[in-house]
Amino acid sequence: MSKTQPNILLVYTGGTIGMIMDPKTSALKAFDFKNLLQRIPELQLLDCTIETLSFEDPIDSSNMNPKYWVQIAEIIEDNYDDFDGFVVLHGSDTMSYSASALSFMFENLAKPIIFTGSQLPIGDLRTDAKENLITSIQMASLQKGGKPVIKEVGLYFEYKLYRGNRTTKINAEHFEAFESFNYPHLAESGVHLKVEYDDLFKPNLRKKLVVHKQFKTEILLIKLFPGISESVLKPFFIMEHIKGIVLETYGAGNTTTEAWFIDLLKQTIKRSIPIINVTQCSGGGVLMGQYETSTQLKSIGVISGKDITTEAALAKLMFMLGEQVSPRAFKTIFETSLRGEMT
Predict the structure, then answer these.
(1) Bigger pLDDT: 43 or 168?
(2) Which of the residues 278, 282, 329, 333 could staple to 305 if both were Cys, CB 3.0 to 4.6 A apart?
(3) Which residues are marked as active site?
(4) Is the pLDDT of residue 2 over 50?
(5) Quick one: pLDDT at residue 175?
(6) What average pLDDT does this structure show over 128-139?
(7) Sign of the alpha-carbon dihedral angle for 279, 283, 289, 292
(8) What is the rounded distance in angstroms from the CA atom of residue 314 to the CA atom of residue 335?
(9) CA-wise closest residue to 163 among 182, 185, 178, 141
């Protein structure tokens, strides 16, 4: 392998970006990534060497789950010493969940893992796949003094690189499919690549890489709405095998103050089941105690998700349950930013 140029590993998991249209039948089919350079000759102009690895059976990202997160992580872990950066090609629908999960899996990450995908297949005339792929590889190749510039899990889409665990998919048909409402983007692609160095994650480079692979998925996401009823909600909360709950509340973390609801939360927390409070709003975060409607939540031990996204909250909850964090320490650790996922 060349040592003068950065070595980038491209990992294809599935998704629109890896599809080409059969000109005769118009059906979409996955193409062989070994022929990537023939499909996108522009890649040869990049100042790096590129190798590709593909899931044996590429999946639609709607089928993404922790088993596949571990598969992606192990591919990167096995090749970590031989490459300077990694680009993960992934369907856009669950990309924010996967980018969040990978950020928690890789502790003391000292190299870039950039997620990207596309809204149109690579063979489409107006595809966004080429730009997303080429620039993601460039972002993963950025070096300063022979060391990678980006040392975190990012998500690149339509001219912007975001912190992966800060993103949300906001549009199913525009090329600008993602947004990071509570954290600035890390880099932007224009005539030049403009990196916001002050906003990049700064890991402890003296510590060795640790890859965590345990997730517990027995969790619930509950979105509050006016008129939510006790008879519908109670069975979910009292299920025996539930290990944690993410509650999407109103505004800055407010909920109904009806006695049955507060009591349900209180009894659940008493069973050492963490309840995370995240906002339904696209931007902003939870400030428990700011309004009377959230003061009780604070006093009974509901965990503040602050300005974390729902996707990152779910991934962090599964990760922390997998790590078997003690009930006593759970609240403190969840309310602490581990990988730049909350402010």
Answers:
(1) 168
(2) 278
(3) 16
(4) no
(5) 84
(6) 94
(7) negative
(8) 14
(9) 185
Which has more pLDDT, 32 or 73? 73
The two three-digit tokens of residue 290, written as one number = 């700011």
- Global confidence as pTM: 0.95
Cβ contacts of 204 within 8 Å, gap of 6 or more: 108
Domains of the chain: 7-211 (3.40.50.1170), 219-334 (3.40.50.40)
Compute the mean pLDDT over every residue in the chain, rounded to the nearest whole number: 93
CB 245 within 8 A of CB 303: no
Helix (H, G, I), strand (E, B) or coil at 336: coil
Dihedral Cα 34, 39, 44, 45, nearest 10 deg: -150
Q: Within 13 Å and on the Cβ side, how many CA atoms surround 253?
A: 27
Cα–Cα distance, 141 to 97 (Å, whole number):
24
Euclidean distance between CA atoms 153 and 324, whole angstroms = 23
How do residues 120-129 score in pLDDT, each as one tens digit?
Answer: 888 788 889 8
CA quadruple 224, 226, 229, 235: dihedral, nearest 10? -10
Give me the residues paired with residue 115 across strands.
Answer: 88, 155
CA 305 to each of CA 36, 287, 312, 314: distance values in angstroms, whole numbers, following the listed order: 41, 9, 10, 10
69 CB-near residues (< 8 Å, 6+ apart): 98, 101, 102, 105, 215
**Cα-only R_g, the chain:** 21
- In the chain the first and final C-alpha atoms are separated, in Å, by 40
Give 7's Cβ-side CA count (13 Å radius). 12
What pLDDT digit, counting tens, does each position of 240-283 carry?
999 999 999 999 999 999 999 999 999 999 999 999 999 999 99
Is 50 exceeded by the pLDDT of residue 322? yes
